[in-house]
Design brief:
This protein has helices at 5-14, 20-32, 34-55, 76-99; strands spanning 106-114, 125-126, 133-135, 137-143, 149-162, 165-176, 185-188, 191-206, 211-225, 232-235, 239-245, 248-252, 254-255, 258-259, 285-286, 292-293, 297-298, 313-314, 317-318, 321-322, 330-347, 359-367, 374-380, 392-412, 428-429, 431-435. The chain is of the alpha+beta class. It has three domains: 5-99, no CATH class; 106-259, Jelly Rolls; 270-435, Jelly Rolls. β18 and β19 form a beta hairpin. α1 (5-14) packs parallel to α3 and α2 (20-32) packs across α3. The N and C termini lie far apart (81 Å). Residues 49-100 have low confidence and may be disordered.
Length: 437
C-alpha cells in the first residue's frame, strides 16, 4: 500500500526523527489544512496512549513528576522531545494558527501607479498572498518581515506566495537584503534566485517564445537555480542572462555582443514629468526600420511615445527606440489632430548603460499631409552620462501647425572603445515630448 506523505511526517515527528525541512513542511500543512490538523491530533492521541501503556505511567508533563520515575523501555530524551513538540503543535493547531498569522509583506511606497481597467490599484499596506498583481506603470516598494525589500517598476506582474519570497512573472525589480535576512528568494519563469546577503537587480521578459531573465549583483552574492543545471553563484559586479538556447536553459554573460546589465528601478523624479500637455504621448509612430536582435532585444519606434523613460523595461518590452545596426535612423510621430507646436523635449538613450547607441545630432521636420515636410529645428542632443540620471532637454522653434513630426538622426553615438566600423552601433532615443508652447 502506498504510504501517505502527511502520515510519514507526523510519525517522524512523534518518533523524534523528523528533519528540519520536513518539520517546516508539516507546520505549513497544519496551518493551511483543517483535515491535516484533525489527523495530526488523532495520531498524537494514539501515540500518547501507546507511550502511557509502555511506560506504565502518565507522561510527566501531564502531572507532577513522581519522586522515583518508573522505568521505561523507551529512550527518555527523544520521547520527551517528541511529546513536547506534539503538545505544542497540537495546541498551535487550535489556538496559535488562527490567532497568530504569519507576518505579511507590506507595500511601503507607491508612486504614479497605474493598473489595468477593472483591477484594484495597490496602495500602501499589507500585501495579499496568492493574488497576482499587474501594473501598467509606476513604482512600488515592498518590505518583508525579515527586513528584505523589493522595488518594482511597471509595467510588471508579480505575486506574493510565501512570507520571504516573491514571484515576478514580468518586469524589473531591485532587491535589497540586509544582514540577517539571507535566504530571501525571487522566483521567475526562468528559474529561482536565492539571496546570500546582497543587493541585486532582475529584469524578467521573453524572446517571443521563452522567458529571458537578466540578473545582476550590485553587492554581495546570489545563487541562481535554472532548470536541471547546478546552481550558479554570482558576486558583486557579475551579471548573467537566463535564456533558452537549442532547447536548453543557458546562463550567458553577454547578449547582442554586449555585457548583460540591469539598471536599478528608480522612483519617478518630479523633474521627469512633462510641463504642459504632451501631444505625443501614446500617439502612433512609424519608421523605415528598427533594431531587432535575439533573446528579446526588440526596440520599435512607438517606444518613444509610451511615457516610459530612463532606458527601463525588460527583454521584448524595452522603453526606448533603436535604429537598425549601423544606421542613424528616423521615425515619424502622427499627432492624429493637427496642432500648432513650438517645443519638443527629448530624452536620449544609452542602450541600458551599454553606451553603444543614441542620438548626437538630429533634424526635426513637420508636415500636415506626411508628404511635404518643413524643417523646424536642427540641434545637438547631449549623451547620457554613465552613472547619472537621464535628463530631458527642451528645444524651441517657431510655432508651426503640423500633424506629422519627423525626427531624423543626423549623427549617432557609438561605443568609445569599439572601432568606427563596428556593426553594433546606431541611432536611438528614449522619449520625445511635443508641446504647443
Amino acid at each position: 500500500m502506498k504510504s501517505d506523505p502527511l502520515d510519514e511526517k507526523i510519525h517522524a515527528l512523534l518518533d523524534g526523527v523528523i528533519s528540519p525541512e520536513a518539520l517546516a513542511a508539516l507546520e505549513e500543512e497544519l496551518r493551511a489544512n483543517p483535515e491535516a490538523r484533525r489527523r495530526y491530533l488523532r495520531s498524537a492521541a494514539v501515540h500518547a496512549g501507546l507511550v502511557q501503556q509502555a511506560s506504565g505511567s502518565i507522561p510527566s508533563f501531564l502531572t507532577e513528576a513522581p519522586a522515583s520515575p518508573a522505568p521505561t523501555p523507551f529512550p527518555k530524551k527523544p520521547l520527551l522531545i517528541a511529546l513536547a513538540a506534539c503538545i505544542a503543535l497540537a495546541a498551535g493547531a487550535f489556538f496559535s494558527f488562527p490567532r497568530d498569522p504569519e507576518p505579511r509583506a507590506k507595500i511601503t511606497s507607491a508612486l504614479d501607479v497605474r493598473s489595468p481597467a477593472g483591477s484594484q490599484t495597490p496602495a500602501a499596506g499589507a500585501l495579499e498572498a496568492h493574488q497576482a498583481i499587474e501594473l501598467l506603470g509606476g513604482w512600488i516598494e515592498i518590505a518583508f518581515p525579515s527586513g528584505a525589500s523589493v522595488a518594482i517598476e511597471g509595467p510588471c506582474r508579480f505575486e506574493l506566495q510565501a512570507p520571504e519570497s516573491l514571484t515576478i512573472f514580468h518586469g524589473r525589480a531591485a532587491v535589497n537584503v540586509p544582514p540577517g535576512a539571507e535566504g530571501f528568494r525571487l522566483d521567475t519563469p526562468g528559474g529561482q534566485i536565492v539571496d546570500l546577503g546582497t543587493a541585486f537587480g532582475v529584469a524578467v521578459g521573453n524572446d517571443g517564445s521563452h522567458p529571458v531573465v537578466l540578473a545582476e549583483v550590485f553587492d554581495g552574492e546570489i545563487e541562481i537555480h535554472a532548470g536541471d543545471r547546478s546552481p550558479a553563484r554570482l558576486r558583486g559586479g557579475e551579471a548573467r542572462a537566463i535564456v533558452r538556447d537549442r532547447g536548453e536553459l543557458q546562463l550567458v554573460s553577454t547578449l547582442d555582443e554586449s555585457p548583460v546589465h540591469v539598471s536599478r528601478p528608480a522612483s519617478p523624479a518630479p523633474s521627469d514629468r512633462a510641463s504642459g500637455e504632451n501631444l505625443a504621448l501614446g500617439k502612433p509612430v512609424f519608421s523605415p526600420g528598427y533594431c531587432v536582435r535575439p533573446h528579446g532585444s526588440v526596440f520599435p519606434p512607438d517606444n518613444v511615445t509610451d511615457g516610459r523613460t530612463d532606458d527601463s523595461g525588460v527583454p521584448n518590452d524595452w522603453s526606448f527606440w533603436l535604429a537598425p545596426d549601423g544606421k542613424s535612423g528616423e521615425f515619424t510621430v502622427d499627432l492624429i489632430d493637427p496642432a500648432t507646436i513650438s517645443r519638443i523635449s527629448l530624452q536620449n538613450t544609452a542602450n541600458r548603460g551599454i553606451g553603444d547607441r543614441g542620438t548626437a545630432r538630429f533634424l526635426l521636420l513637420g508636415s500636415l499631409d506626411n508628404h511635404d515636410f518643413k524643417p523646424l529645428l536642427e540641434a545637438d542632443l547631449p549623451p547620457i552620462v554613465p552613472g547619472e540620471s537621464y535628463p530631458f532637454h527642451d528645444f524651441h522653434f517657431d510655432a508651426t501647425r503640423v500633424r506629422f513630426v519627423k525626427f531624423v538622426v543626423l549623427e549617432h553615438l557609438r561605443h568609445p572603445e569599439r572601432p568606427v566600423d563596428h556593426p553594433i552601433q546606431g541611432g536611438g532615443l528614449n522619449e520625445i515630448r511635443i508641446f504647443e508652447n
